[in-house]
Amino acid sequence: MTAETTEQAVSTGPSEGRSRIEVRCPADGRLVGRVPDLGAAGVASAAKQLREAQPEWEAIGPTGRAKHMRNFLDWILDNEANLIGIMQEETGKSWGDASLEIAMAVDLINYYSGHAAEFLADRKVRSWGAAGMTKRLRVFARPYQLVGMITPWNGPLGGPMLDGVAALMAGATVLFKPSEVTPFTWAEASRGWLEDIGAPPVLANITGGAEAGAAVVDEVDMVMFTGSTRTGRKIAARAGERLIPCSLELGGKDPMIVLADADIDRASSAAAWGGMWNSGQICISVERVYVEAPVYDEFVSKVTEKVANLRQGMDPDGSFATDVGAMCTPAQIDIVKSHVDDALAKGARVLTGGKRAETGQFFEPTVLVDVDHSMLCMRDETFGPTLPIMKVGDEREAVQLANDTPYGLSASVWTSDRRRADRISRQVEAGAVNQNNVMMSTFQMTIPMSGWKQSGVGSRSGGAPGMLKFCRQQSVVSERIKLKSEAHWYPYVPKKSRFQAKMVRFLGAHDWRRRLGRAPKR
Ligand code: NAD
């Protein structure tokens, strides 16, 4: 991929006179390319085209849409190496980390294209009460015409796919606004959809930053946002002003609780992967660990060994030669460094890692001990390859510390006692709990992913609700019996209306005195 070709490939809508965003590879600083920063005009023109295309997209139904979606799946698999290569260039990920995004895309397409007809089927509902006896009730799921999907830089393919597949399969058109930090992967995927497989023009790719994102919120009928809590707040405020629904998947500070009866080999491997996958740049990554005193030393020594053995770097095409890649942005690496420096200044110790590499935007996979809640690394989202580990006296202390955060995205609990795991899960204030595993809840499309507290509003996935959130519920009432008039229509006739009032009382009251309209006893 060259800078010039990518610049052309991503142009969407009017871009003359607009500034360009330059993207450099975080691993080695080489120029990846430039994209136009499309402002409000670019967003408005793309939105208009999508609105024109939407009625036909809705009309072809889930089976028609699934055909295009499966062609897209074939295209993704046929272009796997190219997509991962682009992802690597703009993120500095390892090949292994990046390839998991392909797996997610495949799973999402198969799940939603396979279930859309069932999820979107008209719902027949029984009527209630005497007034509904002659009525036939159904609920149609009608998509929002235009959904805005604003995503962060940590998953350039997985991020848009996570909700984009469900929204498109619901019959909505989608205005995608990927992060300005990593605009190329989704630009290529959008190009594949529109040009290579010739699918209908029901998605548009908007390149640009905060201004373009804000313009998306101003154009759409519903907004799905994934990103920081700070930006989520702004989007919710604007969506509130416009009275459009928004669904927010925000930051996290996920705790891992390791109890004395846990399988420490497995738990330490999970901590190494869960803390370091994607260089820790995952909303649901393990951000802090609480370990019961009897197994603390064993856990720390095993995690340290596993983390120290991780290979860091951006490995070439398909080699799977490294584990952990680069940090996406200089700002993020600064945050990680500030958390480590703060911890060290307050008495923590680094057991492995602890500093940024001399070349490239890499931060060494790091294990910190002797940490406490006075430190940034235990309270603020680090979003980097660090594992601060704290010793706790018992499960009560672990739960209390796990909940000592404004976030509530997910958590993990490690114990060989199932009842204990359930008991603790019910005490943890988070939208998901993984028992003896990490991060797995997010990859299960049949259960909801919902951030509690400041980690989000609404949820994604969870079977049908993951698709129906992109629809409006349309209630349709039709007549079972052809009547000339309804009992409550004009004109009111005293005899008929009195009889009706008596029937309301007779059928609705809970006791005989009221049913028969007797006066209350004094
Ligand atoms: P960010 O909030 O800075 O940016 C996210 C997106 O919002 C980008 O596309 C950006 O251009 C856009 N944006 C910025 N300002 C905007 C505005 N005023 N109006 C509209 N759009 C605007 O987040 P980031 O730094 O790209 O990503 C990291 C954050 O994302 C972390 O906090 C991480 O936890 C979170 N995240 C959450 C999930 C989840 O599912 N809960 C998943 C991945 C990442």
TrEMBL record:
UniProt superkingdom: Bacteria
Please verify whether the record's keywords include Signal: no
Here the segments flagged for biased composition (Polar residues) are 1-14
Tell me which residues this entry annotates as catalytic. 249
Q: By its UniProt entry, which Gene3D superfamilies does this protein fall under?
A: Aldehyde Dehydrogenase, Chain A, domain 1 (3.40.605.10), Aldehyde Dehydrogenase, Chain A, domain 2 (3.40.309.10)
Name the SUPFAM superfamilies for this protein: ALDH-like
**Keyword Transport on this protein?**
no
**UniProt keyword list:** Oxidoreductase, Plasmid
Q: Name one GO molecular function term.
A: oxidoreductase activity, acting on the aldehyde or oxo group of donors, NAD or NADP as acceptor
Show where the Aldehyde dehydrogenase domain sits: 16-476
Please give the residue ranges the record annotates as the region Disordered: 1-20
Q: Which family does it belong to?
A: Belongs to the aldehyde dehydrogenase family.
Q: What is this protein called?
A: Aldehyde dehydrogenase
Q: Which organism is it from?
A: Rhodococcus oxybenzonivorans
